[in-house]
Write a structure and sequence with these properties.
Blueprint (H helix, E strand, L loop, with lengths): L4 H17 L7 E4 L11 E2 L6 H10 L8 E8 L10 H6 L5 E9 L2 E10 L5 H23 L2
Parallel strand pairs: 2-3
Antiparallel strand pairs: 1-5, 3-4, 4-5
Helix pairs in contact: 2-4
Amino acid sequence: MRVSLKFKILILIGLSTLFLGCQKRAKAVVIKSPKLKTPISCMALNEVGVEKSFLNKLKEIYDFNQSCNSKLYISYKRDIVCNSSYNAVIKNTQGFPKSYLKFELKRGLDTLYSYYIDLYENVDIDDIENEFKIVKQDLLKLKQEKDNR
């Protein structure tokens, strides 16, 4: 019994989808403006609409300066439900995100940096901590490299 090349490719794609669909962590989308000069010297924190426990955790990790021109905005949503049949395949094979988390660094109306990630569980304080550490490292990277010299 000979198996055709098309069938082998179909099996390979199917298995790849199965294994990729089992991932519990989506890949973050990071956008950096050419106006962003790293390392940044400071960040202010926009506290509007953010849970107090999340704000406290962020303040433990970083010393925000409210007089700084660059302001960090945090947005998130929990219990995302999509009833569209258009997404039926994604929901059945890969799972559909249950929440998202987004950090944006702005100076005035200009967005200098954006970090967005879909989460397959509701966003919690551990997600805030883990993802902010990545953002912090990304924005302070050059400063840390210079300090190591």
